[in-house]
What does this fold into?
Amino acid sequence: MAENRRWWALVVIALAQLMVVLDMTIVNIALPSAQADLNMSDGNRQWVITAYTLAFGGLLLLGGRIADLAGRKNTFMIGLLGFAAASALGGAASGQGMLFGARALQGVFAALLAPSALSLLATTFTDPKDRGRAFGVFGAIVGAGAAIGLLAGGFLTEYLDWRWCLYVNVPIALIAFAGAWALLAPGERHPDAHLDVPGALLGSGGMLALVYGFSEAESRGWGDALVLALLFGGLALLALFGLWQTRARVPLLPMTVVKDRQRVGAFLTVLLVTVGMFGVFLFLTYYMQGVLGYSPVRTGLAYLPLTAGMIVGSTQIAARLLNKVPPRTLMVPGLLLAAGALALIAQVGVEPAYASHVLPGMIMLGLGMGTAMMTSVSLATGSVAPRDSGAASATFNTAQQVGGSIGTALLNTIAASVTSRYLTAHGGPGVNRRALQAEATVHGFNVATWWAMGALLLAALIAGVVVDAPRAPVPRGAEPAPEPVESRAG
It folds into this structure.
């Protein structure tokens, strides 16, 4: 009975994580409908996505510390209820400001929910064999959640209304809340895990400035004074955050979390992977709808091979081999396969190329990402002291969210700039403006996708050089005497 209870607990944790991850992309396909309904400008529409990912990524470390202080089950359940309420508010939005605010509020509660979910998973499954299977399921959700969001967004937008892309979270969150109430064991509290408010302000402010700077570069240009001030100011704030963490009495990000070579490799890998991935999702969606003329549902269905590939890569490749081979022998080939997929996708033209380029690219991308992401999840949370489990989980999620935010803003800026230059260079009397616009748009997507491929190649290099463990780490909860010495505050 206890064994079955653990696996049902995994279902609850996975359901909550799926909701959090898919909400980063479920509104993508619905965005044109929401923009028209709420009279959003082209410059403002990106905040439907960015308001969520910024609040999420910027507050994750603080959310992880709250989980350590108040107990993971408590913050998990509070996060679920808050996420449901924010989703209902967003679905009922009467204007763009209300929608942006609701999306940011979703991000706030997701920052409570996500680190609690990952640390609950790490402390529930401590047996190496069961841990591999559990993290295989979790890794598949982390990897495939974005694609599932695009599929769900297509169906909900076409057959119901764009608002249901937000309303759908309410029943999911309530089901997960009931399951958590019944199945999850009370989380251990660490009263000495005080909140580092200055660290939260510096870290969140730095990430907000960076992403906002990348976003503004599209309209203002890279040499604009405001853009440069935001980018350099963001870097300065993050540097101050790092300095403060070495001096804070109870740091938001304990140095024990980032001094571990394997975890640092996993964090950097995930950051770079999501920099590339989220921009590509955006480009493929606009390519299929805007260039190929796909409906929202057809666009969502077109992502199914990617989802299937991620599930196979995570549960059938990485989960089976994780405890048998060094982690980098899974991560590096997976990332190289994904980079090869982007190289194939980056060669599409205005003619239909789904079967010849996009489909095989999606399958390769799914297999590679599923294998690499599941392994990264295990590295990021393994062998961390129980009192720092929330912080380690939050750092992993922060890398994912910040990478997605920066990637969307940066790659979208690159694509828009390249498209604009192409139109200027090839325009003239007698030119078919509609055909030229399609060519320019696809060319911009292609160039940005090559940059995304570069991010994956850099991730593969980091994984190959930094990650050198002979096997995936064993969680502290599996050892006879957990946290014997790591009781220092910082």
In short: Residues 477-490 have pLDDT under 50 and may be disordered. The CA atoms of residues 334 and 368 lie 4 Å apart. DSSP finds 18 helices and no strands in the chain. Residues 389-426 form the longest helix (38 residues).
